[in-house]
Fold these 2 entries.
Entry 1:
Amino acid sequence: MNFKNGKPKKNRSLTIVVVLGILLILLAVRISRVPGRVSVQYENYQVVQGTISKTVSGIGRVTTLYKETVFASSGGQITQVNAVIGDIVKKGDVLLKFTSGSEIKAPFDGEVTQVYVKVNEWVNPSARLAEVTDYINLEITAQVDELDVAKISKGQTARIDINALDDEELSGPITSIAKEGVFSGGITTFAIKVAIPDSSGLLVGMSAEIKAEVARAQDVIVVPVEAVQYSDNQPYVWVKSADATLEQVNVELGLSDGQLVEIKSGLTLGQTVSYEKPMVEEQRNFRPGLGGAR
């Protein structure tokens, strides 16, 4: 029997089949999103009285009210350093002494957060010597949009929400409003400061939001803002009658907080307002592959 010498010839057809099979498997496991279908749900709301509060808000952080770097009033040699970083000091405590006999004292009660010199070191006039920070008396420094800053005033009470302390309810007076704004990201904001009466549990740098009330409408007729529609700039609502028919009723709007809106005229207590509430239903489906669509 005769045998042919040499390597077996590759089966190119088999290779192509294998590659196509892999591609089909990969295609079968790909998932795609299709646009959500929008279904309309009708909501009925019974007209009631409520209170609407409009506020101006600002985002900021907890900052120190008193933080001071102590400088040398004249040059000389340091003979004594009485404080180290972390020491708690009282106003008037001696922090440093010079060979001349002059002393550097703490400007207020606080904590030593920096010491810039050592014993026997010579310093020049205006050299930094130490830093003292008051971590008890804190404040919020927040940025308020230029469209809102004119609505608030110094001395006005603002509510303080600390992101890290969900259950804390704080408030304090607005102590300052910047006279110059800062332009960033296409908008201008103004820095305002709000005093914190009780700083227990707060740390410098914590994120915070302040809200100052600028308008209030109490015991007024209110409806959801979604219930109000417009025709040629005339606001109206759909009122549901006893026989379930809908009547278009023009209304006069008042204050709004973004969720509810005051109705100054056009509605009475006990009426039912009906409005559409779109609901987006998201769908997932698999691209067809081996085994078909799921």
Entry 2:
Amino acid sequence: MYRFNIFILLSMVAATINTPFADPPEPPTGKHWEPVASLTDEFNGTTIDANKWYDYHPYWSGRVPSQFKKGNAFIQDGKLLLRNTSRIDNMNQVSDPYNDVWVDAAAVVSKQKNSQVGWYYETSMKASDCAMSSSFWFRVGKFSEIDVIEHIGRATKPGVDKSYEYSCNTHVYGNQSGPSVGKTYTMSTRGRDEFHIYGLWWKSPTDLRFYHNDEEVMQVTPSVPFNEKLHMIWDTEALIPNWVGLATIESLKDNNRNTMYVDWVRTWRLEDGTDIVNQTPVSEKAGYLNVALHKHSGVFEITANSAVNGQVTIVKANGVVVSSFALEAGKPVKWNPESPGMYLVYLKADKIQETRKVHICK
């Protein structure tokens, strides 16, 4: 028997069905995953959602020789972009290129400090093609920092290549002390060449699990228990130029190279759950698409509300299309999922596009 939850994604712009999205890890017995709306975003609007995000870093100016610039983070074509730019045209314009600020970087920070122990976080991102970090991390508490991914798309220091490297780290500061603890995983493709899904299950204060494209690849125990709430952050930095070299002015002036892309972010929390046989029939409605589960048969019925005729496509978490069919208004179509997991149910009709994310648990 299956448990399930439905995550509604409404959009007036074209939804993409060819980009896979990750499944959260298998939940503990008696639990299921529920989405956290305040830390979830498909970035399908025209501007950064000011209710959820700062389009700059309100607590830090950045790492020299770079500095965060408001306006270098923005929404374009259904993605969050973080762009690096140069203030100069020639290195002769700065006295000390390692310590004088001449690079404008970007940051996006959650307005709520509610990232916490037990939750699962995942983001789909593509690194910039320059010697600037493309990072997804958590900080701004009293002592703890979790770097899910700090990636350098193209190092300029001779002999250094980190383009396949997925580096995670934990740092302690402030009112506690302890050494940094991190690990490194080698990806099969470069971070700058395509979108990768990076995940963190903050499983306990002493157990951090890191995921790449839906697979657990690293586990870290921080030097002190991480048990405080933090902000979620994406940013770009001149990440210790002595390690990777300075970004070139040419790369910073090339918009095909200087930009980090974030396709989406999704956050999940664990909730108590019971087998569906002990529940009443469940139906979640919003707009035009209705996905209902009947407890006795375990079969879903998909219905278009109102006077809507359209095409439904169902996609698994790995991006494989499992079903596609026409849907007439008021005429339900039965769907029996072949296995537990994450599915995207996508309705397209005249001037209407609506998507449901269905998570089916064992």
